[in-house]
Amino acid sequence: MKAAFEIPKNLDYNRLGLVAGLEIHQQLNTKHKLFCNCETRLVKELDLANSVQFVRFLRATRSELGEIDAAAAFETQRGRRYIYVMPQDCSCLVELDEEPPHELNREALTIALAIAKALNARPVDEVHVMRKIVVDGSNTTGFQRTAIIALGGYIVDEEGVINIQTIALEEDAARKIAEETSSVTYALDRLGIPLIEISTAPDIRSPEQAKRVAEKIGLLLRMTGKVKRGIGTIRQDLNLSIQGSPKIEIKGIQKLELIPKVIQEEARRLVGLLMIKNELEKRGAKAEEIMAQTPIDITEYVKDCKSNIIQSGLRKGHRVYAIKLPYFDGLLGVELQTNRRFGTELADYAKQWAGVKGIIHSDELPNYGIDEQTIALIKKILNMGERDAFVIVVDEKEKALKALQVVKERACQALYGIPKETRGANEDGTTRYLRPQPGAARMYPETDVPPIKIDETILREAEKLVPPPIEIKMEELTKVYDLSIELAKQLLYSEYLNIFEELIKLYKVEPKVIATLLTSILGELRSEGLDLSVLEDRHLHMIAKLIESYGIKDKEVLKNIISLIIKNPGISYEELKNVVAETRISEDEVRRIVRIKIGENLEVVKARGEKAFQFIMGKVMAELRGRIDGKTVASIVKEELAKIFKSSV
Ligand SMILES: [Zn+2]
Questions:
Q1: How far is the CA of 126 from the centre of ligand 1 (A)?
Q2: Distance between CA 442 and CA 104 in Å, rounded?
Q3: 644 vs 649: CA distance, rounded Å
Q4: What are phi and psi of 392, to 5 degrees?
Q5: What is the DSSP string of 325-336?
Q6: Residue 40 domain flag
Q7: Cα-to-centroid distance, 38 and ligand 1 (Å)
Q8: What does the pLDDT read at residue 396?
Q9: Burial group, residue 169, by CB count within 10 angstroms (0-12, 13-18, 19+)
Q10: How far is the CA of 86 from the centre of ligand 1 (A)?
């Protein structure tokens, strides 16, 4: 890969003038949805398959000011079909926009007010539901209902105070379950689940600080005991800028740990784009010259080329088009984020706006079976100078031409700086172009839902849900439940604090055993690659009951039980109990095996004396691991060895 320069990986965020804000969306664990009485759970795949479907199209409508929103226009021009799957119990005519929304869910409002209080924010006097335009079909109405609940809070971070701008209640969007170029399929079970949205001011100055702030807010949310847990129940959006860049929005960071990485990668991209702008200026690039380029059909010249991409395109009747990008030599190959180059940015635009599979650019050649000879030929056809680059697209004529038009426009933008984009977070912490940022005038009142006065009654209800300060909670965990500070901390920052409290209230179990189960044991299983997302609260209740009935403490035994549940999530308590009872052996049986092992190794035992303990322990555990805890075995081995030595004296 050819690259004109490299962008440093370790950036001085202070010097760059990094400014970031977080938007945290957390699903509330209410009985009903925000504007109807449907359940707030996601259905299984099988139930989706048996559900009714509806098809809709989206059209961009002019706002009251007569403008078409850039983001809406973008989605409309894609002309996609939206398919909505409507699972029973979890969706009704409200989600389908065939019935007006009901009154705002009071339970959700109460929880939101409690969270507002915990974040030192000031509740509004009256809650007004607004409509926020959404353009990706994720809402059947074409807008999302949202209501500001409180303003002006703050949290204290070690590097300074982070202000909270707004706390809002929102309806969650429909759940995307399939996506093709021409259609998107959404499940309506998630649509309307209450979400609390907490927006911080752009007070964050470093990737690490962003993580701490998100962690602290997440902890406060969980401590209310009223939020949902598991993948997808909390989502973080980020906005950030550096000096000389516009504010970039990044959507959908699902993992907290990823936040610092996303900021690092995005800051690097912004630095890189500014460097590219400088370089283009230095080279004397002119916008008119770039825009004057037209795509050229090079199909006939490359039809014998060995490239698979080209050959398979030709078999489908596709054409090969190329365009010259004056002054871009070496710039398309500049790495802006890990494994993402400026060429990748151009490809994103081509994919999103023209629906092509991708582009090929000159900085990555020779490659893909395109050799020096072909490259030289293309350069000649395009009349290229030494500092020029080119881009090729293989597709149907119309799509290819559109893609190259978009590529040209995006390349030209590089001369002016960084475009205002809404980007999506990738799983590796890099980001990709999603769409232009929507205009500001996107909100208008929801006339179907009456405003709600925030009175003393609801504030008093909310007061009961306000979580205690973190220090008080820590004290309770360490003093009342006798957890070590380390274990208490782990539990506090895990998503299992609420279920922990529930389990130790319901079952006669040692809090330490349950806390260890929910932190280190689940953690180990996760790192062993087990998919813990299938583990539901009812499973954890079953495990607690088993611990109560059988006095299970051993880590291996617990790990076995959980693995069993994950392999078979439908397993009943009775079945689980039978398996455990079967594999679990009685102390008498253990004693029998210990005696056999001692008998088999009597010579060694006598020779080693007291030191034979480890030896026998190893032999016995090799046979019994996962069926009984090591502590019980150890005490039996000790007893039996003592008997031997006594008799032999
Ligand atoms: Zn409903």
A1: 25
A2: 21
A3: 9
A4: -115, 140
A5: ETT-TTTTT-EE
A6: yes
A7: 4
A8: 96
A9: buried
A10: 10
